[in-house]
Amino acid sequence: MASDLQRVEAQLVDSAESREGFLTEIASHLIAGGGKRVRPGFCMAAAATAFVEDQPASPEAVTGGVAVELVHLGSLYHDDVMDEAEVRRTLESVNSRWGNHRAILAGDFLLARASELAAGLGTEVAGLLAATIGNLCEGQLLELQYTYNTDRSEDVYFRSINGKTASLLAASCRIGALVADLPAEHTDALTTFGHAYGTAFQLVDDVLDLVSTDEALGKPAGHDLEEGVYTLPVLIEMDGTGFPDSEPNNELKSLLGGTLDEAARLRALDMVRSGAGIRQTIDRAREFAEAGHSALGDLPASPGIVGLNAAVDYLLESVESAAA
């Protein structure tokens, strides 16, 4: 997988090149910063479920992985503009360095490159990626619609993360299956896995935003609270739905709903950390993770299946360790 990810990295760099050197510089900014490349890894692992032994990823699987990663990167450019973020992955954000207009255009450029690559893989892949970009927009808009809204429901929360996170990981797995020409039932099982993992991934990420140290996050813990994005652990604590004897946390709800000063952020963070929402959200993540394992259960043994199952286990271990 390491050599395959190096191929992904090289193609990402190539895909960000423009006839205009300045655009290349901006579009390459986050690529140069590196990343875990979870989505390309899942695309290639899904394709690898066609084989019983390790072998290099096909050019189509690498290209599919690059396409989904470009969509992810393009969405980050746009997210940082909307969040007025100054830092991304310990790097200066694109909008902070070059301004909002250039960041938006560079994000659009990456989405265009992703669409171009997908078109080269066939109409089904191209259509799937286009639909996924639409899902990302719907999920992000739904989140914006409920910013600073303490009445955000769990249903709205899950609809948002379905569009923002789960849909792209599901697409990663499905594209890998499509380029490997896997049977329909096999392809659907991988898609189900990707969606379940993607939901668990976002739940874990939302817990980590609350329980990790500032140093581990590269930003202040509880950043979502500051931004008015009330995630599942916060909703559970506010509504008092963590345990049968839990009661609504009116103090937390009165703190939220607007901008927080430092003292209010720390007080809100302390209440969420000591409440039931963290554990309940980890339990929900575990349920989705188990659904992912189950989706892979009937597929033939392969290196790809081993890798995907290992990713689920690692995800859960990371959040359990941070929340301990």
Task: Explain how this protein is built.
The protein has 324 residues and is mainly α. The protein has a single domain (2-323), classed as Farnesyl Diphosphate Synthase (Orthogonal Bundle), CATH 1.10.600.10. It contains 17 helices and two strands. It has helices spanning 2-15, 21-27, 29-32, 38-48, 59-83, 94-98, 100-119, 123-145, 154-179, 184-211, 214-217, 223-227, 232-239, 250-255, 262-274, 277-296, 303-323; strands at 87-88, 91-92. It has a two-stranded antiparallel sheet. α5 runs parallel beside α8, α9 crosses α10 and α13 crosses α16 (277-296). The two termini are 31 Å apart. The model has no long low-confidence stretch (mean pLDDT 93).
Topology:
Elements: H1 2-15, H2 21-27, H3 29-32, H4 38-48, H5 59-83, E1 87-88, E2 91-92, H6 94-98, H7 100-119, H8 123-145, H9 154-179, H10 184-211, H11 214-217, H12 223-227, H13 232-239, H14 250-255, H15 262-274, H16 277-296, H17 303-323
Antiparallel strand pairs: 1-2
CATH structural architecture: Orthogonal Bundle
CATH homologous superfamily title:
Farnesyl Diphosphate Synthase
H/E topology pattern: HHHHHEEHHHHHHHHHHHH
> In CATH, what is the class?
Mainly Alpha
Low-confidence stretches are none
The coarse silhouette is: globular
Main sheet?
A: 2 strands, antiparallel
